Amino acid sequence: MGKFEYSLGLNELKSKEQRLWQALIGEFLGNLILNFFACGACTQVEDGTFKALAFGLAIFMAITIVGHLSGGHVNPAVTAGMLVAGRISLIRAIFYVVFQCLGAIAGTAAVKILIDQDYYNGLGHTSLATNISELQGLGIEFFLGLLLVLVVFGACDPHKPDSRYTAPLAIGMAVTLGHLGTIRYTGASMNPARTVGTAFATDNWTSHWVYWVGPVLGGVAAALLYTQVLEAKPVPKANEASEKYRTHADEREMRKLEGARDYA
To answer: Per the record, which residues fall in region Disordered (predicted)?
Structure first.
């Protein structure tokens, strides 16, 4: 029963040391920052490069601020990938997604309240381009989720400790690259919570399922691909390496002795 509670995450609800509430506040705040500043940037210009930089920088800032509290998922697709990889419990994952969506809604709502209606410009809501079908949009968002979660796993690989220092920047750049490559076709959501925030503010839920299914499936595929194929191998500890060297040296000495006996 104890093992079941641990995998489900019931222990996190009981333990005072887990500080789940701090992680949830972190995920809420991270998505609020993302939708307030990045979607706010979308109200100002139509330039895709400008928007790509805004979203990348917003993620960079959000993870830098809350990464130590929650791991800095700031995205249900990342949370789904971590769940499949066994890095977080089911209950924590569910709470994360709820608070991510609430944070995104709050961020976009703040933009809507603070600026005049003449400046809305869609409030950065994601939508499929005219000649892009829902199936095509699903494929594009799948690859966006795949890219993002692969970078997250690569940057946070415990066997690549040096990568952690640049993790927020690397993840932010992955978001920027995703926008540069596909923003014209789907709006480059990459993040279901981000799209929930703008859909709620604009009351536009057209093809909304695409922005959930695509990134989440991409995130799950990325988690499986990285953990099963791409994950770095553990670096042997210093004492293990010296012990291995000592063993080989002993074997060489034994062979020399055996050779000496043969000549005798």
So the answer is: 240-264
